[in-house]
Amino acid sequence: MRCPYCGHDETQVSETRDSDEGFVRRRRRCLKCDRRFTTYERPEVAMPAVVKRDGGRAEFDPAKLRASMMLALRKRPVGTEQVDAAIDRIQEKLLADGLREVPSARLGDLTMRELKRMDKVAYVRFASVYRSFEDVDEFRQLIKDI
Asked: For residues 140 and 138, what is the distance between their CA atoms, to the nearest angstrom?
């Protein structure tokens, strides 16, 4: 680790602590100027790329997922903590699959499953756009299944 004060390449770790937020805090001392500083280490997790229906690929973006869920949940009695927990569960499932790429259909199915657990109206709203129903009977069948 390079010293932020003098730029020297050699530092010594004097203390290491694990954080509840998932990172490691290290106190370091520069071996040249003897000044102390703190570094934070966080594991880098590579989310799979999303393969869209047209074959294009996009980086997984939790902000997009949140925006689509919030649109379905608009004016519904669901807190942001529940949405955050649902997004975390979706990300964990994607990582557990261990794939480098995931079809957008898989992401949509996971999202629908989470919305169904949180709020049935939001689930129907999301499904009506995601599944792009051709007629009213398909929509009626979805509501019956709930």
From this structure: 5
Quote the pTM value. 0.63
E strand or H helix at 11, and its extent?
strand 11-18
Supply 4's token pair.
């932020």
Whether residues 139 and 69 fall in one domain:
yes
Confirm if 32 and 8 have CB atoms less than 8 A apart.
Answer: yes
Is residue 5 in some structural domain? Answer: no
Q: Write the pLDDT tens digit of every residue in 41-77.
A: 887 778 899 999 898 999 999 999 999 999 999 888 8
Q: What is the spatial distance between Cα 18 and Cα 140, in angstroms, rounded to a whole number? A: 52
Looking at the fold, whether 63 and 114 belong to one and the same domain comes out as yes
Whether residue 35 is found in the same domain as residue 99: no
54: which 2 tokens? 């047209």
